[in-house]
Design brief:
The protein has 132 residues and is of the alpha+beta class. The chain contains one helix and four strands, in the order ββββα. A hairpin with a 6-residue loop joins strand 2 and strand 3. It starts with a strand and ends in a 20-residue tail after the last helix.
């Protein structure tokens, strides 16, 4: 199985500071939510589109110092991913490729906002196999 990245684009990047007051030494859970969508081009089954997004959203019950939403879309050309195992291997690798764009954007946006930079882990979280 071989693939190549045709292009990657940021679809949306949104950041908002939430003016909250918390007692000193309060632990804040910034656990982001991740979402992945996979589509195959109708005219060419070797062309795949993967949309990967992450969000951190403050709620009344779970206050966070900021809201953050980032979404990237990658277009890939895949050859030899005809069976389930090869397709899952492609999805794992391509998701990791896109995840680095999310990670860099999250770090850059929070650092530029003059708050403590938010770093995602180096490896992408697990996404269950997707049928497109």
């Amino acid at each position: 199985m071989r693939y190549r990245i045709l292009n990657v684009n940021a679809e949306e990047i949104a950041f908002k500071v939430n003016r909250i007051s918390l007692p000193p030494a309060t632990k804040i859970n910034l656990s982001p939510r991740f979402k992945r969508q996979v589509k195959t081009a109708e005219h060419n089954p070797n062309l795949k589109l993967i949309a990967l997004s992450m969000s951190i959203k403050s709620t009344e019950e779970d206050k966070k110092p900021f809201d953050l939403y980032i979404s990237f879309v990658g277009n890939f050309e895949v050859n030899g991913a005809d069976d389930t195992q090869s397709n899952e291997e492609f999805l794992l690798r391509a998701t990791n490729d896109l995840f680095h764009y999310l990670r860099t954007a999250a770090l850059s946006v929070t650092a530029c906002a003059n708050i403590a930079p938010f770093m995602l882990p180096i490896e992408a979280p697990y996404f269950p196999p997707t049928n497109d």
